[in-house]
Amino acid sequence: MSTQGLLRDAPEVAFEVVNRVAIVTLDRPHALNALSHGMIALLADIFAQCAANDSIVAVVLRGAGDKAFCAGGDVRKLYHAARNDPLHETPWLKFFIDEYRLDFTVHRFAKPVIALMDGIVMGGGMGLAQGAALRIATERTRMAMPETRIGLLPDVGATHFLRVLPRDLALYVGLTGARLLGADARRVGLADECVPSTWLRGFIERLESIRWDDEQDALAQLKRVFVPSANIERHAPLDDIRAQIKRHFAVPATGGVERIAASLATDESDWARATLALLESHSPTMLEVTYHALLRGRQMSLSDCFRMELGVVYRAIDDGDFVEGVRALIIDKDERPRFAPTTLAQVRAERVQHFLSSPWRKEMHPLADLCA
Hints:
GO terms for molecular function: 3-hydroxyisobutyryl-CoA hydrolase activity; isomerase activity. Residues 22-356 form the Enoyl-CoA hydratase/isomerase domain. Its EC number is 3.1.2.4. It holds the Pfam family ECH_2. By secondary structure, the chain is of the alpha/beta class. The protein has one domain (5-364): 2-enoyl-CoA Hydratase, Chain A, domain 1 (Alpha-Beta Complex). 46% of the residues lie in helices and 13% in strands. It has 17 helices and eleven strands. It has a seven-stranded mixed β-sheet, sandwiched between helices. Helix 6 (167-176) runs antiparallel to helix 14 (284-297). The model is unreliable at 1-10 (pLDDT under 50).
């Protein structure tokens, strides 16, 4: 493989330039390329370099190994940071601030960003990929926003990017953390193309063959590199349950998750029972908060969505269910989180509003400088 320059080869993030295209690799395969704070800082620096370098025409984001693009943020480190924060100095908050700034940068980047969403794409991985100009899924893609399972809400811009889905489908994906395959992602608008994973193996050679011209459209040129003339068009499994999702999740704006659960309880199908059991295993408070945040996000700007999400995450970690959810599902793995309250019926409207009300005045918000 020939390159025009190796600008950085740092631990956990690799950066090289091939024929004027920056290739950025999340290089933490043992952890499914989950994002550490150090990786986020490196990525922010790399994007700044790419923005300033006129010889670079585009950026490709990919994950090392054959299992994941990015499985999310480093939840274990966040858990320990939150547990060891007796004075409420919130050192963990900087992780989210920097992550959201990075995601916002990808969404607003002036040069085309291509995300190769091969393998697992969850949480923070979705935050990086969904801002890309060209999102490539494969038959190995497993995409999800499973945050309510550990006492958070779908963040990293999810309250904004999930609005490309019909409301009922956005609620289903955001509340349950359901996994979407590559064909599903393309069908619902969370991927632009779904290609064979084998096609991506040879993209470096195809990149090298591009002859750049100032009059050429860089994104159009890159589509020919990453999208074969004959795409795989496999059946999207989501189609099989689409009618059931619409039946149970298309509830009035005032219905809440309790109404969704009640609707599912009237359906004796295996899918409905499994979906209800899934909801009942997640944080009741964060289910209701997520429901309202997703609906609000459909009418909000990207920057306002990030600001809303940061407020919710701050409260979820500071005095919500996050620490207990991570303990039960990731640290101790007893699968028995003691969420408070324990049922949807016990969640008070005032508590939901507490999470949705930012703890910062607008001008003092940590993300106040994000462009609207």
